[in-house]
Amino acid sequence: MSSTVSTPGQIRHSGHPDVPEIDLAVDLGRLRLPNPVMVASGTFGYGKEMAGFVPVERIGGVVPKTITPLPRKGNRPWRTVETSAGLLNSIGLDNDGVEAFVEKQLPWLAACGAPVVVSIAGANQDEFIALASRLDGVPGIAALELNISCPNVSHGVDFGTDPEACRSVVAGVRNATSLPILAKLTPNVTDIVSVARGAADGGADGVTLVNTCLGIVVDWRRRRPLLGNGLGGLSGPAIKPIALRCVHQVRQKLDIPIVGVGGIMTIDDIMEFLVTGASAVQIGTANFADPTAAARLLDALPVAVAEAGAASVRDVVGTLRLDGPQATCGEENKRGDETP
User: Fold this and answer.
1) Which residues lie below 8 Å from residue 255, measured CB to CB, with a gap of 6+?
2) Contact by Cβ (8 Å): 264, 244
3) Which of 23, 127, 187, 307 is the most exposed, having the fewest neighbouring CB atoms within 10 Å of its CB?
């Protein structure tokens, strides 16, 4: 199997008469995506559930729900609770296992027209390696995303909180597959850079920043947590500043492609992640509120990139300015002007 996976570049006109054609293609190490707008694991089903709402073939990359070696029933209900600025979930990696995925889900995904990045999770390093080996060479898979950061299972964050454990599991998977690898990391650490460095040292093609933030919602009248598992993962707009901080810190210290995820709802959110240092983004919780979110945001992207004075998405990535006068809160800030 070739060590380089690519999909055709995508140049799209914004539809605005004053905006030139924009090159939307991005690279995540050896993985080339037609555009940077992906959908996050656990928020898009296996893809075909959403096909009636969004043209899946236009999406930059589809990440189906995480699969494990054997079927999992997941956690007891409640599994999701809305919060004031997001969603708390404790699904527990409910899935039918890798063999059912390959037999029943992958054929549709392979034909959907979008790059497929398969999310995998194991209870230990050997299970991650076994999954990667099983999927290596299987047609229709563009890359693997290692879910080493799920807060909703007992072993979920073990590999994502320790740099050496992260390096080791990524290296084991790297030796088991020729597919590009993304390591999805948790924000529930004191030093995200050291864990990302472990992923890079292990051979990851990129890192996905970030998974959900650990949280709890309680019913004070019953003196009980609302989620059946007690704790859960917080996603949605509430965690966007945390996700941006993680992207910024890793971008400043490491030369590794980043996929930004966490609270993306608008085109401004996408542009914030891009200029901060993410080469691509994943739409997550927004899919629940608006199943058309990925396509809607992709339509808005060329105009935003042109407004940034760039001819391609790649020209925008990592252009955050850290010196000079800070922007004010006035109307001039909306135009991108600096305070005199």
Assistant:
1) none
2) no
3) 307
What's the maximum distance between 2 C-alpha atoms anywhere in the chain? 62
DSSP one-letter string for 101-165 = IIIIIHHHHHTSSS-BEEEE--SSHHHHHHHHHHHTT-TT--EEEEE---TTSTTTTTTTS-HHH
User: What is the mean pLDDT of the segment spanning 118-147?
Assistant: 97
Distance from chain centroid for Cα 4: 21
Q: How many CA atoms lie within 13 A of 85 on its CB side?
A: 10
Q: Does 246 participate in catalysis according to the annotation?
A: no
Please give the backbone phi and psi of residue 32, each rounded to the nearest 5 degrees, phi first.
-100, 130
Both tokens of residue 105?
């889900």
Q: How many CB atoms lie within 10 A of CB 77?
A: 11
Q: Report the distance separating Cα 101 and Cα 67, nearest Å.
A: 8
Rounded Cα distance between 83 and 86, Å, is 5
Can you read off the two tokens belonging to residue 217? Answer: 């919602």
Catalytic site residue from 150, 166, 213, 246: 150
Enumerate domains of the chain plus CATH numbers: 11-74+93-213+235-335 (3.20.20.70)
Cβ-Cβ contacts under 8 Å for 32 (sequence gap 6 or more) = 5, 6, 7, 9, 25, 26
Q: Which of 97, 156, 146, 159 is nearest to 120 (CA)?
A: 146
Which positions ≥6 away from 128 have C-beta within 8 Å? 120, 121, 122, 146, 148, 159, 169, 172, 173
Report the C-alpha gap between 24 and 20 in whole angstroms.
12
pLDDT by residue (tens digit) across 208-260?
999 999 999 999 999 999 999 999 999 999 999 999 999 999 999 999 999 99
249-274 mean pLDDT: 98
In this prediction, residues 156-175 reach a mean pLDDT of 90
Residues belonging to the chain = 340
Condensed to tens digits (0 to 9), the pLDDT of residues 285-308 reads: 999 999 999 999 999 999 999 999
The pTM for the full model equals 0.91
Q: How far apart are CA 127 and CA 66, in angstroms?
A: 13
